[in-house]
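We examine the record.
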Amino acid sequence: MADPYSPSSKFHLLFAQTEASIPTSALIVQEGQYREIPFTTAAQSSFYSLKAGANVGLLRLKVDFFQVEAFISGGLHTAFELQGDADSLGYDGFYSFGINIKLWDIVTLKGGLHHFSGHWGDEMLLNLAQVNSTLDLSETTFLEYTRDNSWLLSISIEPLDYLRLYGTIEIPMINAYVRPGAHTPFRNHYPWQPEVNFHNYITSGEGTTTTIVYPPSYRALRIQTGVEGKIPLFSIGSIFLAGDFQFHQDGKTLHQIDGYADTNSWEFTFSLGGGFEFNLDKLEQKTRLEIYYLNGRFPLLNYFTTRGHYLTVGITIGG
């Protein structure tokens, strides 16, 4: 959970700590505005959080202190209700590819492309239809969180054997699909058609209209930074502590049509935790038993308007 976009595989139990932290609604368009519509009358606070991810290194070249390697990674992440029929809330897909450069086994630089997108769960939509019997799903626009695609730049520094610091910035491309439309920068344009403003194109498709113009400084950036420390424990592995901190520029839109203002703040999400990491196995895959406290967005992309306090515990492999 410290790095939710890492290409790891995990099985976690996720517990919402307050009633306001529980996702109970989907974001749709009604009468030209974004509205929350409930999909349940019996909210659950406990979830399975599952992720299957992988990272593959390609064409590695190492000369003395210098190492360069191409990579491709990706995965799927989902959350199921823990009780009852274990309905799926949705799933996220993500992939990335690019180049890693490592210097002196201390500094790692990464550059490439990153895609991630949220998708509503079929079972959640069926429940929503039952709760809202007068709603015509075929005529309803459901809003999804998409970044297709962003430039990815990151740095990781390990000044000591048991200390790592990292930072990442993601910059949506000039022709990136950024959804929902309220998040779309005005600088973006349709691929190969610079005369087609992407913000207007996407909001028009949603059935909404923005009456203000965002400044060029708004790019729907995401900035992530974190730190991780380890304490060796005999020959078995290490106790670790970690923190991850994310800043979302799309928070300046208040996630609403005409909600943007320069004075609005970026949204902030962080997680703190730790656990035990076993020494690398023969496949060079690290395995962790971990527990984290999360403060911020519910950890499924389409539920970005649900913020709260969460506790997650489980096992993670790879990353």
